[in-house]
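quick one if you have a minute, typing this from the bus. below you get a single protein, a line of residues and a line of whole numbers that encode the local backbone shape. could you go over both lines and see whether the tokens make sense for that sequence. anything you notice is useful, everything is just below.
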Amino acid sequence: MLKRNLLAIAAVFIVWSILDYLIHGILLQSSYEATVNLWRPMEEMNALLCYGVKLGFSICFVLIYDLLISEKSLHNGIKFGLLLGLGNGLMALGSYVYMPIPLTMAEAWFAAALVQTGISGAIVGALIKKPNSLAI
């Protein structure tokens, strides 16, 4: 049980790190450059804290699934991920209300949250199953 949770935490963390780079470092780069006055300069950003938060979220994500989802399966993992992503995405979309960001950026954050947690849900659903479970 501990091994599969640690493996799932590591997998979710790695996938989130890769997706964050692709989404925020490449796809949304021009949007961030267009709103440079809203963000800290790169040299002031704390990469260690960023990875720490990502690791903490990965741990919470995996443990919530493992401890609270009784029927563990790929299907339920994806549903769990998408539902959590919907909540995270709505919070990201809500940023438009109080931050002077373009609506397209808030929409992109919403979509990114759905994609990241949907994929993470598939990971936990595939890795964390009851022993000898054939459920999909």
Residues 2-27 form the longest helix (26 residues). The radius of gyration is 16 Å. The chain is about 75% helix and 0% strand. Residues 2-127 form one domain.
